[in-house]
Design goal:
heterodimer, A: two-stranded antiparallel sheet, 2 helices, 21% strand, elongated, B: alpha/beta, 7 helices, globular
Chain lengths: 86, 149
């Protein structure tokens, strides 16, 4: 904690006032220790966190459910046709 | 280790507010334990590839948007861990119930081959488990993380 000296006057008499001035906020150093499975090489950030932030309520995902159902139906059809032919 | 089905990926990414437990699991578990299958990759790529074949997408500004989305999904997939559908998976594919979709059966077969737990909200995997009792299942839509980092 640092201190600064200020001079003031009270009823004509010289007054020395010591006012404590807060020191600049101390920065905390954080060290992250990687989990054992990440210990070799550089720890990679969780890619899912990035993707969750990126695609949240992204309108370009609208219609994905219908697409997936339709696409899987086509694949099922192809598979059954190949079974019939095979 | 976990193998996400495509719907679980979609819940976590597109509607995280509606599926908070999926998000909790994606972020609380070690991401090195979370895998997707090549089947999900196929579906995600097809999702973004299809618009490239539509006539109305051939002209600017649409052509830029659809190529951007296609490029981005490739980048995103490169960040994730992907399990293949290989001969070990094919071996596990036989004997799966025929009333379940091929892609769900292939995802289950990949999980069985790699001793992974399928993460799904889909009842079809419970149907597969009746025939393949060794299949491990969990539903992150209703289950909070049990093994956080």
């Amino acid at each position: 904690m640092s201190k600064r000296v200020q001079f003031g006057a009270l009823h004509g008499a010289a007054l020395i006032v010591f006012m404590p001035v807060p020191a600049p906020e101390e920065k905390q150093l954080t060290v992250t220790i990687p989990a054992p499975s990440q210990a070799s090489g550089f720890a990679k950030p969780n890619p899912w966190v990035k993707l969750i932030g990126k695609y949240k309520n992204d309108q370009t995902w609208e219609g994905f459910d219908e697409f997936l159902k339709d696409y899987r139906r086509k694949i099922d059809q192809l598979y059954s046709e190949s079974e019939t032919q095979g | 280790m976990y193998l996400l089905d495509t719907n679980t990926v979609r819940y976590g990414l597109y509607e995280p507010d509606n599926y908070p437990l999926v998000v909790d699991n994606l972020t609380a578990n070690n991401h090195l334990d979370i895998w997707i299958s090549v089947i999900t990759v196929q579906e995600l790529i097809e999702w973004r590839y299809n618009p490239l074949l539509i006539a109305s997408s051939q002209q600017p500004p649409y052509v830029l948007r659809v190529y951007k989305q296609f490029f981005e999904i490739l980048e995103d997939i490169c960040d994730l861990q992907v399990k293949p559908f290989d001969s070990a998976a094919l071996k596990n594919f036989s004997g799966m119930p025929g009333n379940v979709g091929v892609h769900d059966r292939r995802i289950a077969a990949i999980a069985l081959a790699g001793d992974l737990t399928v993460v799904s909200h889909d009842d079809d995997f419970a149907e597969i488990k009746k025939r393949k009792p060794q299949l491990k299942l969990v539903d992150w839509v209703t289950t909070p993380p049990t093994n956080p980092i």
